[in-house]
Design brief:
The structure is a single chain. This protein is of the alpha/beta class. It folds into 3 domains: about 5-25 and about 345-435, Helicase, Ruva Protein, domain 3 (Orthogonal Bundle), CATH 1.10.8; about 35-85 and about 205-340, P-loop containing nucleotide triphosphate hydrolases (Rossmann fold, 3-Layer(aba) Sandwich); about 100-190, no CATH class. The protein is about 35% helix and about 20% strand. It has helices spanning about 25-40, 50-60, 110-115, 150-155, 190-205, 225-230, 255-260, 275-285, 330-335, 350-370, 375-395, 405-420, 425-435, 440-450, 450-460, and strands spanning about 40-45, 70-75, 85-90, 100-105, 165-170, 175-185, 185-190, 205-210, 220, 230-235, 250-255, 265, 290, 305, 315-320, 340, 345, 375, 400, 425. The strands form 7 sheets. Strands 9-12-15-1-16 form a 5-stranded parallel beta sheet, with helices on both faces. The protein has a 4-stranded antiparallel beta sheet with strand order 4-7-6-5. Strands 3-2-8 form a 3-stranded antiparallel beta sheet, with no helix packed on it. A hairpin with a 2-residue loop joins strand 6 and strand 7 (about 185-190). Helix 11 packs parallel to helix 13. It is elongated, with a radius of gyration of 35 Å. About 35% of the residues are buried. The chain binds adenosine-5'-triphosphate (ATP) and magnesium ion. The site of adenosine-5'-triphosphate has 20 residues, from helix 2, helix 10 and helix 12. The site of magnesium ion has 4 residues, from helix 2.
């Protein structure tokens, strides 16, 4: 496809691969692919709107789905030290409770089948436990001795059948405990050994899924708080009171470092994390990070879960000026096991790159979903705008890659076209949008002559200089 022959952005095909949707950053994209494949870390440095967040997300999209499910289990010996269990996707089913041996209702002692609701107490014949009266003699199977006030006391037909009967039997000269359990139309018999195993497993089955198997593999940490990043054990006013409190394991919440296990942990403006960077470094070194109650006055603070997996790919973003505020050992960790990439701010103004800009416009329009496609006039106008911005901001002749600016302009033009119910965005819409999408700095400079004068005008110290009222 050559540039001159494009009638509108509707004709442009958009690549399915999110990495190929990133334009003008070939080096960063190439490294991004490697990072995903080899599980390295990545620091992206560059100005706003050049695709850092977009790249981080695209990397995550190349990763396989998480394979591990992470659980926290109740620790009966030490409830405030819940146990972590990592299991790979398929192992879950194998941990079924022992089912026991299934037998026919005819094979159990009479009183057992009576209690379980199979046998009629009056005629002694067997029928489904779901039927409340005997098929054969019509007797009510679930009532014991009928007294004159039973109906008043129990309500009519209160069931008396039992789910399970505990009893003993003789085996090899020894008496052992067995349990008969109702299983639909059959009865299960569980031995002492199976019962012990079941009790043990039930205790173990007091768990909470901390990281489910189907979790997103892109996690963005804003670094707003320590608990968001590292997890927490919530406060319970009743602490671990056995009767009314909640067990500590139920109150464990994962942090971003855990949620990103097997995926990408994206941190925008890494340096703004300040001292929290140290924790990221530790997690990266250990590949797991303990979760503990972070509020000292909370009942959660006595709880700690060790060894919670936190094996993530770190993708961090920073502006050039902030690079030196990144914790040096963290940076050296990234360099030692990953890459640092400086994003491009512009690209050469040639046919190939103009086509890429058209692809970009098509992407923005389709992703927005509320605006019509751009016709060739609008496309030409947008390309001119990209040239202008490259000159204005970076002092180069080329096409800008500060694409958030372009994205804003095409969407605004689209809104105008949409509000006029036009089939396409035209050059006119783009010109109007560009004129009106000016940032405050530009509007003020135009109106007052300079930003400095504009700031004085705000205090009323200087009269507003003549100039256009419309900015
Ligand atoms: N290289 C690019 N290719 C295609 N689209 C891009 C590119 N860069 C930016 N965009 C568009 O601009 C939007 C903003 O980009 P993104 O959020 O990735 O920028 P950023 O570098 O993370 O900026 P910031 O530093 O402000 O977080 C994207 O959603 C996308 O629509
Ligand atoms: Mg970003």
């Amino acid at each position: 496809m050559d540039f001159a022959s494009i009638g509108s952005t509707a004709e442009v095909s958009i690549p399915k691969d999110p990495l190929l949707q990133i334009i003008g950053q070939d080096h960063a994209v190439k490294i991004g692919r490697l990072v995903g494949k080899q599980r390295r870390h990545l620091l992206l440095v560059g100005p706003p709107g050049t695709g850092k967040s977009m790249l981080a997300q695209a990397i995550a999209s190349t990763l396989p789905k998480p394979k591990q499910e992470v659980l926290v289990l109740h620790n009966p010996e030490k409830p405030e030290r819940p146990i972590v269990q990592v299991r790979s996707g398929s192992s879950r089913r194998s941990e079924r409770l022992p089912a026991g041996e299934i037998i026919e209702p005819t094979m159990v002692p009479f009183y057992v089948s009576e209690k379980l609701g199979f046998r009629c107490r009056r005629c002694g014949r067997l029928s489904s436990p779901d039927a409340s009266s005997c098929y054969f003699c019509g007797a009510d199977k679930y009532r014991k001795v009928r007294g004159p006030f039973d109906d008043l006391l129990l309500g009519s037909g209160a069931p008396e059948r039992e789910e399970r009967v505990y009893t003993t039997r003789m085996r090899d000269g020894k008496e052992e405990l067995v349990v008969f359990e109702r299983r639909g139309d059959k009865i299960a018999i569980l031995t002492q050994k199976e019962l012990a195993k079941r009790a043990e497993m039930q205790q173990k089955m007091q768990f909470k899924v901390l990281l489910p198997l189907n979790r997103p593999n892109f996690v963005q940490a804003t670094g707003a708080s320590e608990t968001e990043l590292l997890g927490d054990v919530r406060h319970d006013p009743y602490g671990s009171h056995p009767a009314i409190g909640s067990l500590p394991y139920t109150r464990v919440v994962p942090g971003a470092v855990h949620e990103a296990h097997e995926g990408v942990l994206f941190i925008d403006e890494l340096s703004s994390l300040g001292r929290l960077q140290r924790f990221i470094l530790t997690a990266m070194q250990e590949k797991h990070y303990p979760i503990s109650g972070r509020n000292q006055s909370s009942t959660g603070s006595s709880v700690r879960v060790d060894g919670v997996p936190a094996d993530f790919i770190l993708v961090a973003a920073a502006n050039i000026n902030d690079v030196h505020h990144i914790l040096p050992p963290l940076r050296s960790r990234i360099i030692g096991n990953g890459y640092e990439v400086l994003m491009n701010t512009h690209m050469e103004d040639n046919e190939e790159n103009r086509l890429k800009l058209v692809q970009f416009l098509a992407q923005e329009i389709v992703r927005d979903g509320r605006i019509p496609h751009a016709d060739s006039g609008a496309i030409a106008e947008m390309i001119e705008y990209a040239r202008k911005k490259a000159k204005e901001i970076d002092g180069v002749s080329g096409l800008t890659l500060r694409l958030r600016i372009l994205s804003g302009a095409i969407k605004m033009a689209g809104d105008i076209a949409a509000s006029n119910e036009k089939k396409f965005i035209t050059a006119e819409d783009v010109r109007f949008a560009i004129e009106n999408a000016k940032p405050i700095e530009e509007q003020a400079t135009e109106r007052y002559g300079s930003w400095y004068k504009a700031s004085l005008a705000d205090y009323g110290l200087k009269k507003e200089r003549g100039g256009s009222e419309v900015g």
